[in-house]
Amino acid sequence: MPEITVGQAALALELGISQFYKETLEATQETWQAWLSSRPIERYTDYEALASGIGPVASKPPGSPFQTDTIYLSPRKGYTVKPYGIALVLQHEVVKWEWYGIYEPLGRSLARAARNRYEVDAYAIFNRAFDTSDAVYTDYRGDALCATSHTRLDGGTWSNRPTTDVTISMDGLETGWEDLRRLRTHRGFYQNAKPIKLVVPVELYW
User: Fold this and answer.
1) What is the pTM of this model?
2) HSE of 155, CA atoms in CB hemisphere, 13 A
3) pLDDT at 1
4) Helix/strand/coil (H/E/C) assignment for every residue in the chain
5) Alpha-carbon torsion (201, 202, 205, 206), positive or negative
């Protein structure tokens, strides 16, 4: 039987790892998908901007001209893709003489590591939403995502954080529900937001 070459060993290892990676990737739960939506990226750096929409409809007596309105636009905010990767170096002798089934878990381990990166980055939205230390997790004005006072595009203000933080309790949930129902758009309309999910840390799960 001819001796396996370095290239053949690497190819066989790659095929095996890829199969285990695919199987584990499909089987590993992603908890962030229960509360956060996503979409495929189209550019390495992408931009978004907000538009205020149209304000309240004014009265118009018969024969009178329509009142015109202005749509307010926000400055655009850019997001640059942040690549991740990890590598493992194996000597040819290890590939050739390994007896202990070490290779088989490598694909699964890589898949779990990849899934974990998704989890960490997704939940960082909560961990970073209350400060401005990382510009990725700020709004187009550079303000924290959750703040007691945001400036609307039409000049008004709104809040998506209580002035005094509340605890996880029945009273706290009622207060949060009321605050969410009072959220307004950039033209002052109520958003009609309806809370459907509560995300809490492990220690508050029960």
Assistant:
1) 0.72
2) 3
3) 42
4) CCCCCHHHHHHHHHHHHHHHHHHHHHHCCCHHHHCCCCCCCCCCEEEECCECCCCCCCCCCCCCCCCCCCCCECCCEEEECCCCCCCCCCCHHHHHHCCCCCCHHHHHHHHHHHHHHHHHHHHHHHHHCCCCCCHHHECCCCCECCCCCEECCCCCEECCCCCCCCCCCHHHHHHHHHHHHCCECCCCCECCCCCCCCCCCHHHCC
5) negative
Distance CA 11, CA 5 (A): 10
Single-letter residue type at 150: H
Q: What are the phi and psi torsion angles at 101 (to 5°)?
A: 70, 30
pLDDT exceeds cutoff 60 at 130 = yes
Q: Which two tokens stand for residue 137?
A: 């997790």
**Mean pLDDT on 177-201:** 88
Q: Tokens representing 174?
A: 């009622």
User: CB neighbours of 184 closer than 8 A, spacing ≥ 6?
Assistant: 152, 156, 158, 190, 191
CB 186 within 8 A of CB 83: no
Q: Please choose, from the candidates 203, 205, 3, 199, the residue with its C-alpha nearest in 3D space to the C-alpha of residue 93.
A: 3
